[in-house]
């Protein structure tokens, strides 16, 4: 047998070329997977396949140049080119395979077999190009091992290339994988060489004029190697530049999104989310500006308090969605009547306030008449609605010279308009009082309600999106008036706060909610929790912590199953005191929910210091889903903020399946709203929701 020897430097070079070719192919495979359009994808596949095929082929012939026999060697040109074609074809097939959307195991194994067969064929065709006489004697064991190495290397190559598609820009990871693949490709070659036995007296039959001498092969292989090296370095540089560009673009997009979200949150803090009119905060600022201007210039202005007659009936008959649409329609009609210096604000519910500069009282009266005429018959969502407006008017400085006094006078005049038969306007006069007889009568009835036990709690379900079942309820206080029926909280809570009754009302609601939750726990619903709303005054009361502790102890409830809901604006009033109180409540184990999140004007610096466990997205951001891009952006930002701060996210006001599905996609944890259940008394709540089938529909 002829004995051959190897040049160590060329052996090392062959492995280096295989690794560089693998790196080039991996990067191009990732590019092909991310390419837009079939033509672009095939450009990267063919380019990558050519680079990898040339690399495998170069590695083989560098290995052949590293091997020397005591006889001159040459290579048949056609067989040499055929081996190159096989290498390139196998590599293009491999890149096509790994750029597909999926790579199941059966396809991976089949692809590894085909690609491995191609690499092995390239090697043995290249060996046949020597045209040895007599033929090479092959050792079957080594041949089998080379085929197994080819299959294993190709399996690894396809698997790694497919996985690397999701790690764009990870150059170090790509280099490591390329070195592993290069070692596998080199293993195929050198195992195949070990299988070759050259009998004594063998000669190379490829030394003719049409054949390729070893020196010419060395030049060709050198040129291909330089090409591969250039491609590898160029791709690494280009990938790094592209990744830097992608990061910059992603950061710019994120920055713009955050700026948009912050601007939208700021706008929402000063405007009513339904009608987009200024809210109470912006109204107060405008009144203060007008008061200052009136002091400096002796100019008069009017405050007009507008309340819609019949709005509650619209809500009761047609639902809140139609009621909201009616408010939008009315606000647009009112806005069309205003001058450029006038301001129309919505306080909430069906209450609007107009600030308008006064030339004479007749002009104000004429404006009030036009506003009354703007109501009347309105077609909303196919429903013919007939609502009217009661308007109270107060003048500055005629009737008052402070924001609070002006609001009280306009409010009193508005109640006078309602008492006089509604659908009219009244200018404030002395003796009406800041709310007059109506407010005094309501206050007397409210005090009587305490003694007679007319307060009741209704419960609205809170549903866990992940488990698709009820997780508890929110307790909502109602006044069961003997003549007026159930009175919602927005009609008596402000009066209770002004009169000092809110403390007693709040303690009763907290205790009753805990009592009811204990009843449900005894019925087997031990995973249910209870949310209780706290007003701003109740939250700032000195005995709140004591009230919570006593209620939990009295009814034997775990603290973590009680959630206290506080509005965002209430939390921001005195952040140092707020943080201390919340820390004390958190120490008890009570959950803290920031209600109406996004409608206040909170500072994230303060917010991160508060030990809150839940953010509750206001229904104003839910109403226009899934169509509103801005609302989706705001909700996604709130979800990301909550996740970062370890808080659960609750969305209230869910009324349609489309809203529910959109909120699921955005990652909200809990849902509330009429779609999932209206507020009902405890007995009805148990009938509707106390069974396993009470789950999220759809």
UniProtKB/TrEMBL annotation:
Keywords: c-di-GMP, Coiled coil, Membrane, Transmembrane, Transmembrane helix. This is cyclic-guanylate-specific phosphodiesterase. The keyword Membrane applies. InterPro entries: Biofilm_reg_signaling, EAL_dom, EAL_sf, GGDEF_dom, MHYT_dom, Nucleotide_cyclase, Rev_trsase/Diguanyl_cyclase. Residues 244-271 form a coiled coil. SUPFAM superfamilies: EAL domain-like, Nucleotide cyclase. It comes from Stenotrophomonas chelatiphaga. Its cofactor is Mg(2+). Residues 299-430 form the GGDEF domain. It is an enzyme of class 3 (hydrolase). PANTHER family: BIOFILM ARCHITECTURE MAINTENANCE PROTEIN MBAA, DIGUANYLATE CYCLASE DGCP. Residues 6-199 form the MHYT domain. Residues 439-693 form the EAL domain. One of its GO terms (molecular function) is cyclic-guanylate-specific phosphodiesterase activity. GO terms for biological process: cellular response to nitric oxide. Pfam families: EAL, GGDEF, MHYT. One of its GO terms (cellular component) is membrane. It comes from the Bacteria. Its EC number is 3.1.4.52. The chain crosses the membrane at residues 6-29, 50-71, 77-98, 110-130, 142-162, 174-196, 216-238. It catalyses: 3',3'-c-di-GMP + H2O = 5'-phosphoguanylyl(3'->5')guanosine + H(+).
């Amino acid at each position: 047998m002829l004995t051959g020897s190897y040049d160590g430097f060329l052996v090392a070079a062959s492995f280096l070329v295989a690794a560089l070719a693998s790196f080039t192919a991996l990067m191009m495979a990732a590019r092909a997977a991310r390419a837009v359009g079939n033509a672009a994808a095939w450009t990267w596949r063919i380019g990558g396949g050519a680079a990898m095929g040339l690399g495998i082929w170069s590695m083989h012939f560098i290995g052949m140049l590293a091997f020397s026999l005591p006889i001159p060697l040459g290579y048949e040109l056609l067989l040499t080119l055929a081996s190159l074609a096989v290498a390139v074809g196998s590599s293009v097939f491999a890149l096509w395979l790994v750029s597909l959307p999926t790579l199941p195991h059966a396809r991976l194994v089949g692809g590894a077999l085909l690609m491995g067969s191609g690499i092995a064929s390239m090697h043995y065709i290249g060996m046949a190009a020597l045209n040895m006489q007599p033929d090479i004697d092959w050792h079957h064991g080594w041949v089998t091992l080379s085929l197994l190495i080819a299959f294993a290397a190709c399996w690894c190559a396809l698997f790694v290339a497919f996985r690397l598609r999701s790690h764009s820009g990870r150059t170090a990871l790509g280099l490591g994988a390329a070195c592993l693949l290069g070692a596998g490709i080199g293993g195929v070659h050198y195992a195949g060489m070990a299988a070759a036995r050259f009998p004594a007296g063998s000669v190379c039959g490829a030394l003719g004029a049409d054949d390729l001498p070893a020196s010419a092969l060395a030049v060709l292989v050198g040129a291909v190697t330089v090409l591969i090296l250039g491609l590898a370095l160029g791709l690494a540089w280009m990938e790094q530049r592209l990744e830097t560009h992608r990061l910059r673009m992603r950061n710019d997009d994120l920055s713009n999104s955050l700026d948009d979200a912050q601007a939208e949150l700021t706008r929402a803090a000063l405007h009513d989310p339904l009608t987009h009119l200024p809210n109470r905060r912006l109204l107060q600022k405008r009144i203060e500006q007008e008061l200052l201007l009136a002091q400096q210039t002796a100019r008069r202005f009017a405050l007009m308090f507008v309340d819609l007659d019949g709005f509650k009936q619209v809500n009761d008959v047609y639902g809140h969605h139609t009621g909201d649409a009616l408010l939008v329609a009315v606000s647009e009609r009112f806005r069309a009547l205003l001058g450029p210096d006038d301001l129309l604000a919505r306080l909430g519910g069906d209450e609007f306030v107009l600030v308008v500069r006064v030339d004479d009282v007749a002009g104000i009266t004429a404006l009030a008449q036009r506003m009354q005429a703007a109501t009347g018959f309105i077609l909303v969502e196919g429903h013919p609605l007939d609502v009217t407006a009661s308007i109270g008017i107060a003048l500055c400085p005629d009737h008052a010279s402070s924001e609070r006094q002006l609001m009280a006078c306009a409010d009193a005049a508005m109640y006078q308009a309602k008492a006089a038969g509604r659908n009219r306007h009244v200018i404030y006069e002395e003796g009406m009082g800041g709310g007059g007889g109506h407010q005094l009568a309501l206050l007397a009835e409210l005090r009587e309600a305490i003694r007679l036990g007319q307060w009741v709690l209704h419960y609205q379900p809170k549903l866990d999106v992940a488990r698709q079942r009820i997780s508890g309820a929110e307790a909502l206080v109602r006044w069961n008036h003997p003549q007026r029926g159930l009175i919602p909280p927005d009609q008596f809570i402000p009066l209770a706060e002004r009169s000092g009754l809110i403390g007693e009302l709040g303690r009763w609601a907290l205790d009753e909610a805990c009592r009811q939750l204990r009843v449900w726990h005894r019925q087997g619903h031990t995973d249910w929790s209870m949310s209780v709303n706290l007003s701003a005054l109740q939250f700032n009361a000195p005995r709140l912590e004591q009230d919570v502790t006593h209620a939990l102890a009295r009814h034997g409830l775990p603290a973590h199953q009680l959630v206290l809901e506080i509005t965002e604006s209430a939390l921001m009033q005195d952040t140092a005191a707020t943080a201390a109180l919340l820390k004390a409540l958190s120490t008890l184990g009570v959950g803290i929910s920031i209600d109406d999140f996004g409608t206040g004007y909170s500072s994230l610096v303060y917010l991160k210091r508060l030990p809150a466990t839940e953010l509750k997205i206001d229904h104003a951001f839910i109403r226009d889903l899934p169509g509103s891009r801005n609302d989706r952006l705001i909700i996604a930002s709130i979800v990301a903020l909550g996740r970062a701060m370890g808080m659960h996210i609750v969305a209230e006001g869910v009324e349609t399946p489309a809203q529910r599905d959109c909120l699921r996609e955005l990652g909200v944890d809990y849902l509330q709203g009429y779609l999932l259940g209206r507020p009902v008394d405890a007995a009805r709540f148990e009938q509707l929701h106390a069974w396993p089938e009470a789950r999220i529909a759809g």
